[in-house]
Each structure stands twice: as structure tokens, then as C-alpha cells.
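Structure first, sequence second, as always.
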């Protein structure tokens, strides 16, 4: 079973940046598609970004384009989410997810492997 561990969340002011990390424990990391997903209080799960196994294909939700960058280091079994120009509406718990590739990915609990998440709070 793959274990995922997110880190890097915290409390920041609007306009500031954070870099989230997700450590992947399994031997298949370099073959896995990975996702970042977030969930704000009282809201549904929301897809943020996707990266292919080699790290050269990425997709982003519209709100993440131009502000967020997903990357990975296969030597370190880690994926990252660099978030710039953060806004209060980015406040959420952020999860990394290992799952099959879907062109129209819809996050769903119980499918794929999920970490515990890391909280990001953007507030002045």
C-alpha cells in the first residue's frame, strides 16, 4: 500500500507563497500519475493539478493556472505544489493523490491513495 505524506501548509497573508510537498512511500512512484486536490470547509473536493510520471506533462484547474506550479522529483519520491499570489479563497486542506490517469479527473474518496492533507490558510 502506498502512503502519502503532505507537508508545507500554514498560515500566510494574501499575496504570499507556499510550497507544499508530498512524500510517496511506494516503489511505483516514478510510474505514477499524481494529483493535488483541495477541500475548503463545507465544500466539495476540488481538483487542483495533475502531473504525469515523468513530470513533463501538467494540467491545472482554471483557478490554479498562472499561480500554481506542480512538479516532482522522482529521485526523492516527492511531488510539489508551488503556490504563489495566494488568495483567501485558496484556504483549504490540500491533499496529494495517487491515481490512474483520467483526462477529466474528478476526485473521489476511496479511489486511489490519499494522504492526510496539509492545511493552507490565507488570511490577513
Amino acid at each position: 500500500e502506498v502512503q502519502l505524506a503532505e507537508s508545507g501548509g500554514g498560515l500566510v497573508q494574501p499575496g504570499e507563497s507556499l510550497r507544499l510537498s508530498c512524500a510517496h512511500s511506494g516503489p511505483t512512484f516514478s510510474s505514477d500519475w499524481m494529483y493535488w486536490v483541495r477541500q475548503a470547509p463545507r465544500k466539495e473536493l476540488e481538483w487542483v493539478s495533475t502531473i504525469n510520471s515523468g513530470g513533463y506533462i501538467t494540467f491545472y484547474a482554471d483557478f490554479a493556472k498562472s499561480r500554481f506550479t506542480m512538479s516532482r522529483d522522482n529521485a526523492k519520491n516527492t511531488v510539489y505544489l508551488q503556490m504563489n499570489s495566494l488568495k483567501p479563497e485558496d484556504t483549504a486542506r490540500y491533499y496529494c493523490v495517487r491515481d490512474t490517469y483520467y483526462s477529466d479527473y474528478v476526485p473521489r474518496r476511496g479511489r486511489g491513495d490519499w494522504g492526510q492533507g496539509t492545511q493552507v490558510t490565507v488570511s490577513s
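Margin note: The chain has no helices and eleven strands.
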